[in-house]
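I am hoping you can look over what I have pasted underneath with an eye to the fold:
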Amino acid sequence: MSEVIDNPAQHRFELAIDGSEDAGEAYYRIEDNRVVLTHTIVPQTFSGQGIGSHLARGVFDATRASGRKAVLRCPFMGAFYARHHEYSDIVVG
């Protein structure tokens, strides 16, 4: 699977899926130097294949590497975090 890429011009993290044009996307905005995660999209055809979890892990890892904190306004990211407290050092609010 591809790596998660930050696309700041589009305010989203992207994950290319198996070389196709489809991508998982996690939208965000920056507020007070925090990454506010607002919405996550994984194409329905890839549902249940772990794409969303791979995307979320990449988003949290990239946020940690940037030195920023994450604010979870997206229900999917909130549910992922509820199962992965290893990211508690970067999740606020």
Notes: The chain has one domain: 4-92. Residues 4-92 form a domain with the Aminopeptidase fold (CATH 3.40.630.30).
